[in-house]
Design brief:
By secondary structure, this protein is α/β, with parallel strands linked by helices. The protein is 46% helix and 16% strand. The strands form 3 sheets. It has a 6-stranded mixed β-sheet with strand order 1-2-4-6-8-11, with helices on both faces. A hairpin with a 2-residue loop joins strand 1 and strand 2. Helix 3 crosses helix 4.
Length: 281
């Protein structure tokens, strides 16, 4: 097993190994984790590298800064394409936006479950980022906001695509997207954006996220990765399509040794031990 995932770290994104098979990814750009292009490109690269690590089984995404998760976009570092031809300008802008979206979508396409742990301020791009995560925890002191409308933008990096499929209260999703107002951890839990509110701030919510990550990491990596894949497929397809796809998927995955290992461990009342996802028989 890899002793450390530190080699995956970059200038703004730190990766560590707080527990076996668990990667802790921390946003670390002082003073407020404001995202400029090198930051979001690096975030995407880190998650794409994690996707290739066979010893990872669960990921926690948090902030390394004690007071907040992220203030969102660093507007002072944004480049606005300008030109005399609106069509050509639009092509450049579209390419830029798609590239930005792809960096954040690296979180979603990571084959391992990603658990977001938010605290303090979590504005704008923070919502795009955590919406791409599989599980979302919030510290009781967190303040969320879909801020893009306040600066003349429709959120375009994932919030408007994913949040309506996450939250159970579409009326509230629309209200928050139109007004840009702040909302609390309690309101986020009520709408379904987060599944748990942890009393405290950064240390408490990260600890809670790591506990669930360790629980996931003890499961069959074949089963967990397959479950994430099928849940994402179900989100974007009909029930019938997903059932048929799942039958095809499991016709291969049910042949895993993990199934027999789990049964044998249960019979012996022992904790099963599974090989890394990329290991050979």
């Amino acid at each position: 097993m890899t002793d450390s995932f530190n080699h995956l770290s970059g200038a703004y994104v730190k990766v560590s190994t707080p527990a076996p098979y668990v990667a802790l990814v921390e946003l670390a750009r002082n003073p407020v984790n404001a995202f400029h292009e090198p930051f979001w490109i690096e975030l995407g690269q880190v998650f794409d590298k994690i996707s290739q690590e066979p010893t990872v089984r669960a990921v926690v995404l948090a902030s390394a800064l004690p007071k907040l998760f992220s203030a969102g976009i660093d507007f002072t570092a944004l480049t606005v394409h300008q030109g005399s031809d609106p069509a050509r300008t639009a092509f450049l802008m579209r390419k830029h936006i798609l590239g930005f979206q792809d960096c954040i979508s690296a979180i979603e396409r990571c084959p391992y479950p990603v658990i977001a742990a938010t605290h303090g301020v979590a504005y704008g791009l923070s919502i795009d980022i955590i919406s791409a995560c599989d599980v979302r925890y919030a510290a009781s002191n967190v303040v969320f906001a879909i801020k893009e409308v306040d600066v003349g933008l429709a959120a375009d990096i994932g919030t408007l695509a994913r949040l309506p499929k996450i939250a159970g209260n579409h009326s509230l999703v629309h209200e928050l997207a139109y007004t840009g107002r702040n909302f609390s951890a309690t309101e986020a839990e009520k709408m379904g954006l987060v599944s748990r509110v942890v009393e405290g701030s950064r240390d408490e919510v990260v600890a809670a996220a790591l506990e669930v990550a360790k629980l996931i990491a003890a499961k069959s990596p074949v089963a967990v990765a397959g479950t994430k894949h099928l849940l994402l497929h179900a989100r974007d397809h009909s029930v019938r399509e997903n059932l048929e796809y799942t039958a095809t998927w499991n016709s291969a995955m049910l042949q895993t040794q993990d199934l027999m290992d789990a049964v044998k461990a249960a019979q012996k009342k022992q904790q099963p031990k599974f090989r890394p996802l990329g290991s050979k028989l």
